[in-house]
Amino acid sequence: MRQSTEAKVVFWGFLSPTLFAFLMIIVIPFILGVYYSFTEWTGVAGASNAWVGLQNYADLLREKRFFYSFAVTAAYSLVSMVVINLVAFVLALLVTQELKGRNIYRAGFFLPNVIGGLILGYIWQFVFNSALPRLGDLLSIGFLRKSMLADPRTAFFALVFVVSWQYAGYIMMIYVAALQNVPQELLEAAAIDGAGPWQRLRHITLPMIAPAFTVNSFLTLVNSFKQFDVNVSLTGGMPTTTFAGEPVFATELLAMNIYNTALAMNDYARGQAKAVVFFVVLAVLSLLQVYFNKKREVEL
């Protein structure tokens, strides 16, 4: 009994610093944020924090810029999730083959992930705005002469491309780990029985690495919805376009919209209301995605 009590004291003793940090940095600010979303909070000390109820949430229903950012973020997340997972899986298949220097390839594909998002965005901003247009002039290639970031349609895909280039290597490593755990005996037996590469991939490899698809789909979905740093440094939300007759920022994702509302517009209460809506939507989508992927694992 005494040994059990001592073990609990040691357990909570080691856990308490982390638990305290989690409460102070995550839990308490979240609860306060939910409270402030029902007030007219301005973020200024001593200012009025009068209770306004659901007024901030009602205002969101009339804000077209918020709905546009929400729609763009949903489209961006869907496209990014598909592109990143597809590229990462293809790269994982390549670097798990008997290739000379495959570890070098793995390191090279993973390397963009260690570059900070802000720095990465500024680097690719230079590439899109200066390097590619000059290359287009030298080679007389028309579509390269204009920056992709200057057009609302191409700026969206430029953002997808840069984030996919950065994140695909990280997702690839998860697929690599899953592929290496597929028993080679099964693949060899299937090959002996006459199964081709596609049949082995479809009926053996994919079902056995299904949990990796669930994890990676979750990671890419959450990361895409929360995208902020590359969005700020690469496009800054630009260029402008129109939505329902009002001017909006064409590539302003939801996290950036919340940031601009709270800090640029100094409307902390409405920004916090947007953050609460953002949290609820992301939590629901993540749970649904994991549920259906888990169900798909059983079917495979």
Globally, the shape reads globular
The helix-and-strand class reads: mainly alpha
* Residue-averaged pLDDT: 89
Number of strands: 2
The spatial strand order of the largest sheet comes to 1-2
Strand content: under 5%
CATH architecture descriptor text: Orthogonal Bundle
Q: Name the CATH superfamily classification.
A: MetI-like
- Major β-sheet profile: 2 strands, antiparallel
| CATH-defined fold name | MetI-like fold
Q: Count the domains.
A: 1
Number of helices: 12
Q: Write down the Rg.
A: 24 Å
H/E series: HHHHHHHHHHEEHH
Sum up the structure in keywords.
mainly alpha; MetI-like fold; two-stranded antiparallel sheet; globular; 300 residues
Structure description:
With 300 residues, the protein is mostly helical. It has a single domain, classed as MetI-like fold, CATH 1.10.3720.10. It is 74% helix and 3% strand. It has helices spanning 2-36, 55-61, 64-95, 102-110, 117-139, 152-180, 184-192, 197-208, 210-225, 229-234, 254-264, 268-299; strands at 240-243, 246-249. A two-stranded antiparallel ribbon has the order 1-2. The radius of gyration is 24 Å and the shape is globular. The two termini are 48 Å apart.
